[in-house]
Here is the input.
Amino acid sequence: MLQIGCQTYTWEMLGDRWSGGPDDLLDAIASAGYSGIEITDTMIGSYAGQPEAFGRALSARGLELAAFACASDSGYTEPDRLASDLAMIDRTLDFVAAFPGAVLSLGSATVMSPGDREGKFAAAAELYNAAAELGEKAGVPVAVHPSSHHNTLLFSRADYDRLFALTDPIRLGWVPDTGHILRGGMDILDTLITYRDRIRYLHLKDVDAAGNWRMLGSGICDTRAVVEIVTASPNFNGWLVLEEESDVAAADPAKAVRTNRETMRALLA
Here is the structure.
């Protein structure tokens, strides 16, 4: 059964313009009609290290934790940060393990210092593979979420191909993001089909032909075709997570996520 979740980056991208807390996010997402949430390590706020309390907050609003996303200022590409990054991921897995079925999503490998790209790929692959092993021991699925943001190492199809060639195809999953794939100039349907076995859940958002963020259904993403491929993928867990980064969302995040939920309801009708 398909379940529709909401990613909290819609608020996180506002930076200092957002002064609310995690309960405000949960209230907005629940009232918009979502059944789940993907929250980030930045937005978990006062619930950090308190899975029981967060579980109660979710249950009170009829929400589930679909995924927990975490990143590092190492960009996961600095070899001397491997041990500290894995220690952070291990602690995060303890939190996520309290929510059966939830996925730990690791942020996109990002270039943070000078150096050859092949070395960056090797460092990222080592981190992702080791994190996936930790996840297996903790009983938590681990997946990588490539992005198209500044200095990402994972922008083009060649970048995806390189990373996936270096990582464990069984342990390490993938969170495809329609907006980032399209901004990378890829054939989105071919990319999804090629790596369908790695798909754990899906990030849905939209862009125009120039790569500018647009509200879901207002850009070039063939959402129906994407959903058809993803839902037929063997390791897909049922979650479609809507994430919104457009100027409309920046002006009113709660309204934007509500609109996207309505759009998704119509698309799946």
